[in-house]
């Protein structure tokens, strides 16, 4: 009996006008999005390789110049610096997350450091009219279509009188509800998966990324989370349908819930977190660090006046004062970072009231384009600066302070220069990071279906 009821639901859905609209939207949006983002990824990858080559050639160009030592010294200690390049994330084609918001290049010298935003050199219309990625389409469009697909699955049949006839034939209510959920979900999931498979096939044919090993596993996990997210809204729509008695009311309630969950809560959570868990401004932290520097300088001058500047005791005292100043500035940086992390964590927890936030966190973690990518970039950049500072000072001690104006032929090896590297998150770590959000989506699914069942047991079909 259950299979007969499911078959009936699928046939009714497939023959409806909304199914045709959904099918066209799925293929149109997903395919166009993946095609555009695949092309963009290939362009960014070529730009990345060309940039790496250009920066390497720039370093090599100093060898053989008449004033090569002075030129290279100017690069290290002047404003030029050296560059590090960040490659685009492969699964950014499907879930962009923060990938395009982070700089594609970083630059550092002993006197200056900066990040280079590639968007400054791109057509501004690409930012004004950004191409929605697969994650955005599922989060916004598919969730809405899922609600609109099932919002009248119970109340609509009641209005037409078919629900009363169905239950008059001694069909158990639990089977009716289960068949409607399965039938509605399959009617939406099958065309969605077919459209997605077509998009993945296009990516594979173009060779933009290698869909194998860990990359393929990550993509499969993203698809699994997407299907769980779609089923959640199917269960939610069915619950709303069991709470209302006419389709127009169910539609209004569905739209209200969708707007609240998708648009309001995820954007309101950071505002609430900012108010309840404030973070000091970077200007305030810099001002306090400047005060520490001035205090340190005053103490150093006092030591110089009171002791012989070339004495061992004075030297030890200066080192102690400088170390104390450095430690105080590190504590200020740590204080700021702790406050920022607390605000971020509070924002995430508040936004998780909405399944939309859980879906976004889970998919970006799995694609390595979320907060983990931001953290990895920040750590990589700090490590790049530290390693470069150490390397530059060692080079200066060897070739410049010792007046070696004519270094040997091997004085410059580009491969020995510090490079910008980011930690690659393993799949196991990504799954662990996304596990809480995946479990929340699962809990929402079970909760909505159980509530639908409880409401339907008391539903008046007359």
Protein described:
This protein has 462 residues and is an all-alpha fold. Helices cover 73% and strands 3% of the residues. It is built from 15 helices and three strands. It has helices at residues 2-14, 17-60, 68-77, 124-128, 134-150, 155-160, 162-168, 173-206, 213-243, 247-276, 282-306, 312-351, 355-367, 371-400, 427-457; strands at residues 82-85, 105-108, 113-116. Strands 1-2-3 form a three-stranded antiparallel β-sheet. The longest helix has 44 residues, at 17-60.
State the main characteristics.
3-stranded antiparallel sheet, mainly alpha, 462 residues
Which percent range fits the helix content? over 70%
Question: End-to-end span in angstroms?
Answer: 23 Å
The portion of residues forming beta strands comes to under 5%
Q: What's the β-strand tally?
A: 3
Secondary-structure element string: HHHEEEHHHHHHHHHHHH
Apparent shape: elongated
Radius of gyration, in angstroms, nearest whole number? 30 Å
Mind describing the biggest β-sheet?
3 strands, antiparallel
- Average the pLDDT over all residues and give the rounded result: 85
């Amino acid at each position: 009996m259950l299979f007969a009821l499911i078959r009936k639901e699928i046939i009714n859905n497939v023959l409806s006008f909304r199914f045709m609209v959904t099918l066209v939207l799925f293929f149109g949006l997903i395919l166009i999005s993946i095609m555009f983002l695949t092309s963009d990824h290939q362009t960014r990858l070529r730009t990345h390789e060309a940039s790496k080559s250009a920066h390497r050639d720039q370093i090599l160009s100093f060898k053989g110049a008449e004033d090569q030592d002075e030129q290279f010294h100017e690069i290290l200690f002047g404003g030029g610096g050296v560059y590090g390049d960040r490659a685009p994330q492969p699964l950014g084609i499907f879930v962009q997350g923060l990938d395009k918001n982070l700089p594609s290049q970083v630059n550092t010298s002993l006197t200056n450091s900066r990040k280079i935003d590639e968007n400054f050199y791109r057509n501004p219309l690409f930012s004004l009219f950004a191409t929605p990625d697969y994650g955005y389409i599922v989060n916004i469009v598919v969730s809405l279509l899922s609600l609109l697909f099932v919002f009248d699955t119970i109340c609509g049949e009641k209005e037409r009188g078919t629900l009363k006839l169905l239950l008059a034939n001694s069909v158990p209510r639990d089977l009716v509800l289960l068949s409607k959920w399965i039938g509605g979900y399959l009617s939406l999931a099958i065309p969605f998966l077919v459209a997605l498979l077509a998009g993945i096939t296009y990516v594979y044919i173009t060779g933009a990324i290698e869909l194998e090993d860990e990359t393929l596993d990550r993509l499969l996990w993203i698809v699994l989370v997407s299907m769980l997210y779609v089923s959640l809204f199917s269960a939610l729509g069915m619950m709303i349908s069991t709470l209302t008695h006419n389709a127009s009311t169910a539609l209004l309630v569905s739209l209200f819930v969708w707007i609240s969950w998708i648009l309001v809560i995820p954007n309101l959570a950071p505002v609430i977190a900012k108010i309840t868990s404030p973070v000091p401004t970077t200007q305030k932290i810099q001002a306090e660090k400047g005060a520490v520097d001035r205090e340190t300088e005053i103490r150093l001058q006092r030591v110089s006046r009171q002791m012989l500047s070339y004495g061992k005791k004075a030297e030890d005292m200066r080192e102690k004062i400088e170390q104390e100043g450095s430690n105080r500035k590190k504590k200020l940086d740590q204080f700021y970072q702790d406050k920022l992390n607390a605000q971020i964590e509070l924002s995430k927890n508040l936004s998780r009231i909405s399944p939309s936030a859980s879906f976004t966190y889970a998919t970006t973690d799995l694609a390595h384009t979320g907060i983990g990518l931001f953290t990895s970039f920040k750590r990589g950049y700090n490590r790049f600066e530290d390693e470069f500072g150490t390397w530059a000072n060692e080079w200066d001690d060897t070739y410049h302070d010792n007046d070696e104006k004519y270094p040997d032929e091997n004085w410059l090896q580009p491969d020995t220069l510090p490079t910008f590297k980011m930690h690659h998150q393993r799949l196991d770590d990504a799954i662990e990071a996304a596990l809480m959000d995946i479990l929340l989506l699962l809990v929402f699914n079970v909760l909505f279906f159980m509530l639908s069942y409880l409401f339907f047991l008391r539903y008046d079909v007359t």
